[in-house]
Design goal:
177 residues; alpha/beta; Rossmann fold; seven-stranded mixed β-sheet; two-stranded antiparallel sheet; 4 helices; 9 strands
Length: 177
């Protein structure tokens, strides 16, 4: 069983003291994951469809669609937490390819995805619910830093009734060789 909050903190803690100068948080919501780095030297940009986060000293919020916004280049960390399942499979894969291209040499991508074992994947088969092997294949030329997969505690949100999600946490680093 995955405790989502603790697992996020565990993955983000790996990235502290990595000299991250530029962070991009896709589908950032309130920016809780990227704001983990507020107070560090990093310049953080969060993109989301709804204005739910305020700009801070080193956190810039962009209200927009991640499919249309410019990711820039040389991002030391790009976070995509629980957004890829909203997209058709091919669209999600294109988004990941854009993430990879926008990542600096030796930079990181952190993905949190609902997996193919999630109950919603059966109801929304056209959407992106990968298995861990598929994600690792997409990042096959990158270094694997950490991976975790499992079911969350029981939740009740979005009129779905009591349910669990099966999540994949994947932290990878771009190789320059």
């Amino acid at each position: 069983m995955i405790n989502t909050k603790e697992t996020k903190r565990e993955f983000l803690s790996i990235l502290l003291n990595k000299n991250l100068k530029k962070i991009l948080d896709l589908g950032c919501g309130k920016g809780l994951m990227s704001k983990f780095f507020v107070g560090e030297e990093a310049k953080i940009t969060g993109i989301d469809l709804k204005k739910t986060s305020e700009d801070l000293e080193n956190f810039n919020f962009i209200e927009g669609d991640v499919r249309k916004e410019d990711f820039g280049k040389d991002n030391d960390l790009i976070i995509a937490s629980l957004i890829l399942h909203f997209f058709e499979k091919q669209e999600a894969k294109q988004l990941i390819e854009r993430m990879k291209t926008a990542t600096s040499d030796k930079g990181y991508n952190l993905l949190i995805c609902m997996s193919d074992k999630d109950e919603l994947s059966k109801k929304k088969s056209e959407k992106f619910y990968p298995d861990i092997k598929e994600l690792k294949k997409i990042y096959e030329n990158w270094g694997l830093i950490k991976e975790t997969e499992g079911f969350t505690e029981t939740e009740d949100h979005d009129n779905l009734g009591s349910h669990q999600h099966n999540l994949i946490f994947l932290l990878v680093q771009k190789n320059t060789e």
